[in-house]
Amino acid sequence: MNTNFIVNDYALIWNLLFGASISETIYKLKQKIWDNYRNEYNAIFKDKELIMKDYKNFIPNNDIIYNIVMENRDYEKLRKQAEKYRLEIMKLWDKNKKETDYLIKDILRKEREDYTIFVVNKELNIIDCPNEKTCVVGMDIDKKEPLKILLDMNLAMAKYHTKRYKDEYECFKKAILELAVLNEYATRLSGRSCYQSGSPSLLSLKRWLYPYWLMYLGVEKEEFFSYMMRDKIVFEVDKYAYEKELKKMNIEEFIDFCIRNKRYIVREKEVK
């Protein structure tokens, strides 16, 4: 999978107009445009889908709003900031490409087509996947945890590329994607176990899933103990039949397996 990071004027302006107001100047500009060109402002809301689908050939039906923003004296400054931010994200992505490729090919096991990452201003505080080939990123890179943005981006993409389940089963999807991205991928990125990270509400479910997750990853039964010590998650190995077929599944097939066998996996009665 090739990943192309770009700053596109139309995508950047659309997010500045419809995202959070990142400065007093932008807020006043948006208000001025709204007061004078309300119909045109409303009309370009639909442009997002067209830009994301084919940005190279996108031509707005009416470019008056885009021109007003581009001609604003602060826009060039915002664009330069986005370009600088793009280089920062690219550097992080390229440095950790091996681990990210492993996440996609060996953990998620789902093919991804070439991806375009639309980089916008980080003050917009956004990570969004509008379709199967694009992601919009504008979020601060944490100085203490710079790899967190890679986790957020890949979790968002994994959620988009995994089918939607019934509400009662979405918790399985969320828990398993956390195991994949926030736990296993993060562990490989950082070189230390990250299996205590994630949503507190999913922690219990992830502990029930953990033995089957190890089987999914292809961990042999005799290696379970070392993984339990690494991740500080303990279970009684002898109580679990080793499911050999799990390591041949992709992430959706594994989610389906867990949902089908939920009453055997979530052993709450044993605790009670």
Can you offer a commentary on this structure?
The protein has 272 residues and is α/β, with parallel strands linked by helices. 56% of the residues lie in helices and 7% in strands. It has helices at residues 9-18, 24-36, 38-43, 47-53, 64-71, 75-95, 97-108, 148-160, 170-190, 203-217, 224-231, 251-260, 262-265, 268-271, and strands at 3-6, 115-119, 126-131, 134-138. The chain has a 4-stranded mixed beta sheet, sandwiched between helices. α8 (148-160) runs antiparallel to α9 (170-190) and α9 packs across α10. It is elongated. The N and C termini lie far apart (47 Å). The mean pLDDT is 94.
In percent, how much strand structure appears in the residues?
A: 5-15%
Averaged pLDDT: 94
- Give the helix tally: 14
Task: Please tally the β strands and state the result.
Answer: 4
Tell me the Rg in angstroms.
22 Å
**Major sheet details:** 4 strands, mixed
What structural class do you assign from the helix and strand content?
A: alpha/beta
Shape: elongated
Helix content: 55-70%
Question: Which strand order do you get reading across the main beta sheet?
Answer: 1-2-4-3
Low-confidence stretches: none
